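Researcher: Final request for today, and then I'll write up notes for the group meeting. The sequence and the SMILES for zinc ion follow.
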Amino acid sequence: MKAAATILLTSMIMAASAPVNYKLAEFEHKVGQIMIELKQKGWKPKINEQFRSVKRQKELVKKGFSTTMRSKHLCGLAVDIIDKRYLWNIPIKHQFWKDLGAAARKYGLTWGGDWRRFVDVAHVESKRGC
Ligand SMILES: [Zn+2]
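Model: Predicted protein-zinc ion complex:
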């Protein structure tokens, strides 16, 4: 009975804290699925960046690599995925980016290649807010 009570209490605590990390866990699970699909297609995908500090985000905006201080990288709900053989040195119409975009859409994520104002082909983010 004691052990059962402990397990029950533990699962209650876990359930109570779940919403806090749910968005991140869900996003990371989907990113994991995207990585598997890309590997199955013969790509060598690499998550280049997920979490970003405010300082780093400011630097990227200053250099023109980002346009916002409200980036989902600040809370980990965005990743940049590249093929480690090509990095960013391939055209934006390259099949790797197309496959990345298709996989992101399949899992209900936003792909930066679909943006009009600032096309960001390596970028994948959650539709949920930070
Ligand atoms: Zn990004």
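Model: The two ends are 41 Å apart (CA to CA). The beta strands are 45-49, 78-83, 110-111, 123-125.
Researcher: Thanks, that's everything.
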